[in-house]
């Protein structure tokens, strides 16, 4: 099956389709699209499409986001789409492993500074199912490194 013939129940814009195709085939994607265009939908749909196309049995996307409120909203939105989404710090490692998550949201600090999450990223089962890592709100990325510490 191709993305063009999968019945998602709604239409995607051309740019969303192209980004989604590239993402599920593990290519690097940079989607600089206007506010309200549906950028989040690209990675939210990736696990569904990858599974329907037989690319992965338990596809998973990691989302790195600097904003807690945004992560909370996106977990709720993903649930409305029928996806299993969890947030580091809200859900435990046991919850995430048991739930067979499709989307896992976490701050850069949570992913990098807590060993249990770094270890999760390095497990074979996790890596085998990982479609990709998304950096949301990328325009804030300069605040995540040395620039934030006055360097």
UniProtKB/TrEMBL annotation:
High-level lineage: Eukaryota, Metazoa, Chordata, Craniata, Vertebrata
Keyword Transmembrane helix: no
GO cellular component, one term: chromosome
Residue intervals of the Helicase ATP-binding domain: 20-151
Record SUPFAM superfamilies: P-loop containing nucleoside triphosphate hydrolases
Protein name: Bloom syndrome
Family indicated by similarity: Belongs to the helicase family. RecQ subfamily.
UniProt entry tagged with the keyword Isomerase: yes
Protein keywords: DNA-binding, Isomerase, Nucleus
Domain of life according to the entry: Eukaryota
MF annotations from Gene Ontology: 3'-5' DNA helicase activity; ATP binding; DNA binding; four-way junction helicase activity
One record GO biological process: double-strand break repair via homologous recombination
């Amino acid at each position: 099956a191709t993305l063009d013939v999968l019945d998602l129940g709604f239409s995607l814009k051309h740019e969303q389709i192209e980004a989604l195709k590239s993402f599920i085939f593990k290519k690097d994607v940079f989607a600089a699209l206007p506010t309200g265009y549906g950028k989040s939908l690209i990675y939210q749909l990736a696990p569904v499409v990858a599974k329907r196309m037989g690319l992965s049995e338990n596809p998973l996307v990691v989302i790195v986001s600097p904003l807690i409120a945004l992560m909370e909203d996106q977990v709720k939105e993903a649930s409305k789409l029928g996806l299993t989404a969890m947030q580091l710090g809200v859900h435990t490692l046991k919850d995430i492993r048991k739930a067979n998550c499709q989307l896992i949201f976490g701050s850069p600090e949570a992913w990098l500074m807590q060993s249990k999450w770094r270890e999760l990223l390095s497990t074979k089962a996790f890596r085998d199912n990982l479609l990709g890592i998304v950096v949301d709100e990328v325009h804030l990325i300069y605040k995540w490194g040395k620039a934030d510490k006055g360097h």
